């Protein structure tokens, strides 16, 4: 039985502005961080705020123990989000690498909590973290 062969799909690289625009259009992604010297991934909700990715997490998450890193800029993390159709395999994927820091200002924490629903049930130990992008990459599958 002969099969129709569609032309091969090629990923098209996205510029940083387009990648952030797509990221702003979804509310779910994956935080990639180091835990006990090993890579770890956690699904979280996010919002974009003044060019930063803001997430709600709990204090047991490994990005928060000492929170600032040795240089004071934060803990290096990656954040990945996508929107890919399971049937057609069309869509996009974005990865941001940057520094995560805990938000400590009470007014900013309350503003984020009002705009972003928590995905995890640890409300009593919940924290807010802000990821400042340093490297933004992405591609569209089409």
UniProtKB/TrEMBL annotation:
Fe/B12 periplasmic-binding domain residues:
75-142
- Which Pfam family, giving just one, matches this sequence? Pyridox_ox_2
Known InterPro entries for this protein? Answer: ABC_transptr_periplasmic_BD (IPR002491), Pyridox_Oxase-rel (IPR024747), Split_barrel_FMN-bd (IPR012349)
Source species, domain of life: Bacteria
The name under which this protein is listed is Pyridoxamine 5'-phosphate oxidase family protein
């Amino acid at each position: 039985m002969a099969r129709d062969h569609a032309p091969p799909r090629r990923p098209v690289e996205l510029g940083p502005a387009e990648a952030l625009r797509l990221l702003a259009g979804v509310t779910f992604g994956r935080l990639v961080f180091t835990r006990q010297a090993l890579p770890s991934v956690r699904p979280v909700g996010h919002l974009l705020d003044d060019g930063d990715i803001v997430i709600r997490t709990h204090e047991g998450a490994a990005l928060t123990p000492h929170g600032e890193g040795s240089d004071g800029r934060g803990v290096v993390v990656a954040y990945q989000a996508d929107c890919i159709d399971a049937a057609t395999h069309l869509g996009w994927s974005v990865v941001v690498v940057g520094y995560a820091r805990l938000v400590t200002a009470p007014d900013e924490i309350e503003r984020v909590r009002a705009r972003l629903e928590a995905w995890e049930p640890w409300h009593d130990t919940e924290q807010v973290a802000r990821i400042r992008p340093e490297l933004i990459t992405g591609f569209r599958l089409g």
